[in-house]
Design goal:
With 183 residues, the protein is mainly alpha-helical. The chain contains five helices and no strands. Helix 1 packs antiparallel against helix 2, helix 2 packs parallel to helix 4 and helix 3 runs antiparallel to helix 4.
């Protein structure tokens, strides 16, 4: 993005939420260990907090923190083809992902709304609130991939640079593995 500096406060906020979720999960985990193995009085709510924080931090981070270059992908073929084919791969895969996720939104919304009736065992939190992060994830991924598709169709240098850096990183990994094997 051209105006990355104006997005820094938003990035700081999203990073802070992820850090708070990880810290809460860690403290809850330590409490569970202490109460279970030292005091012999296990706490049920700590497991709920740990699982809730884990689900939220994974989906929150995947939706709002990871760049496209940081996402896990199977790119053996991708890195071996010319730039034009890579651009086609980006367009086809992004369009497919957007279509599939967009089709899933109504069912996702209905399921989350249905889960309003259910509550967690110890904290009595409504499951619609707990699962709402998935809808945030779906919408954020759709927005990301619509943007990526538009950039790829326009032939934007940002997509080219990212594709080149991914290919260079793969080549560096291959070189490192080869040098380890020969030593």
């Amino acid at each position: 993005m051209r105006d990355r500096a104006s997005l820094r406060p938003l990035r700081l906020l999203t990073d802070s939420v992820a850090v708070a979720l990880m810290a809460t999960m860690f403290v809850s985990f330590l409490l569970q260990i202490f109460f279970r193995y030292v005091l012999n009085r296990p706490l049920g709510w700590t497991e709920e907090v740990t699982v809730l924080c884990w689900v939220w931090v994974v989906l929150w981070s995947a939706a709002l923190l990871l760049s496209d270059a940081e996402e896990v992908r199977f790119d053996i073929i991708y890195s071996a083809v010319p730039r034009g084919a890579r651009r086609a791969f980006v367009i086809v895969s992004s369009v497919a992902l957007v279509v599939l996720l967009a089709i899933s939104i109504p069912a996702t919304w209905r399921y989350i709304a249905f889960m309003k009736r259910e509550h967690s065992a110890y904290l009595h939190m409504r499951f619609d609130i707990l699962y709402s992060i998935y809808l945030v994830f779906v919408v954020a991924v759709i927005v990301k991939h619509v943007r990526l598709t538009v950039l790829a169709i326009r032939g934007d240098r940002e997509v080219d640079d990212e594709m080149a850096s991914q290919a260079e990183a793969l080549e560096a990994q291959d070189d490192a593995l080869k040098s380890r094997g020969s030593s």
